[in-house]
């Protein structure tokens, strides 16, 4: 596939979760456990890094990841354990305005889906009680599929699950590489910065009145 078909009309909206629907910051948790700012900076740059965390997004179980890292950094074993047991504290709340957009879309009968890089175990601990997802018709979670964005395979999985041809899918993500991968398959894509800009883009696409 080679980009969006200019004649294709988007008919369904696919949301990323982190930094589109919910804010996320590992430092919010670790800052409660490491008082010294320079030590906190070092820990986030060298121990529980985004790259290390991404292994769980891609399907590696915490029971492998956490003990392995604790063995390498025994002085911070308790902080690494908190990553496993207190992960929801890294998610402080919704991104302003996007939940209202989801409700407008579902209220208008527009099919809404999710495609998120999220560890399976963390998703199972986060999803309950988050009623914004109740109106989603399906959510593809990378940790369950054991493949993460921007790998083309996760977009292929979403296409099969959602039941829409690529040209009907309007994808919202905060990472340019994830948007580029979607567009390469023929999806429409919007690089998320804020809810107001997103609302305009959805209106221009004919998905919001």
Which tags fit this structure?
11 helices, 2 domains, alpha/beta, 209 residues, PGP-like_dom2
**What CATH architecture of the largest domain do you see?**
3-Layer(aba) Sandwich
Strand % is 5-15%
Residues in helices, as a percent range: 40-55%
- Calculate the terminal CA-CA distance, rounded to whole Å: 30 Å
Please provide the ordered H/E string of secondary-structure elements: EHHHHHHEHEHHEHEH
Tell me the CATH superfamily of the largest domain.
HAD superfamily/HAD-like
Structural class comes to alpha/beta
Mean pLDDT: 96
Extract low-pLDDT stretches.
Answer: none
Reported for the largest beta sheet, the result is: 5 strands, parallel
Protein name: HAD family phosphatase
InterPro entries: HAD-like_sf, HAD-SF_hydro_IA, HAD_sf, PGP-like_dom2
Summarize it:
With 209 residues, the chain is of the alpha/beta class. The chain is built from eleven helices and five strands. It is elongated, with a radius of gyration of 18 Å.
Describe this entry's structure for a reader.
The chain has 209 residues and is of the alpha/beta class. It has 2 domains: 12-23 and 92-204, HAD superfamily/HAD-like (Rossmann fold, 3-Layer(aba) Sandwich); 26-90. 45% of the residues lie in helices and 11% in strands. It is built from 11 helices and 5 strands; from the N terminus they run βααααααβαβααβαβα. It has helices at 26-30, 37-46, 50-57, 62-72, 77-85, 98-107, 120-126, 142-145, 152-162, 176-184, 195-204; strands at 12-15, 112-116, 138-141, 169-173, 188-191. Strands 3-2-1-4-5 form a 5-stranded parallel β-sheet, with helices on both faces. Helix 10 (176-184) links the parallel strand 4 (169-173) and strand 5 (188-191). Helix 4 runs antiparallel to helix 5 (77-85). The two termini are 30 Å apart.
């Amino acid at each position: 596939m080679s980009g969006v078909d200019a004649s294709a009309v988007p008919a369904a909206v696919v949301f990323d979760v982190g930094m589109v629907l919910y804010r996320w910051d590992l430092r919010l948790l670790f800052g409660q456990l490491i008082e010294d700012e320079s030590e906190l900076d070092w820990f986030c740059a060298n121990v529980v890094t985004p790259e290390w965390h991404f292994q769980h997004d891609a399907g590696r179980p915490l029971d492998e990841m956490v003990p392995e890292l604790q063995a390498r950094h025994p002085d911070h074993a308790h902080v690494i354990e908190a990553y496993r047991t207190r992960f929801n504290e890294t998610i402080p709340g919704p991104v302003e305005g996007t939940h209202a957009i989801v409700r407008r879309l579902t209220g208008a009968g527009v099919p809404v889906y999710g495609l998120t890089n999220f560890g399976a175990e963390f998703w199972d601990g986060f999803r309950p009680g988050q009623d914004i997802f109740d109106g989603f018709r399906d959510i593809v979670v990378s940790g369950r599929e054991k493949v993460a964005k921007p790998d083309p395979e996760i977009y292929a999985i979403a296409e099969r699950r959602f039941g829409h041809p690529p040209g009907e899918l309007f994808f919202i993500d905060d990472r340019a590489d994830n948007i580029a991968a979607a567009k390469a398959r023929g999806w429409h894509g919007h690089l998320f910065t804020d809810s107001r800009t997103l609302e305009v883009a959805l209106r221009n696409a004919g998905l919001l009145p």
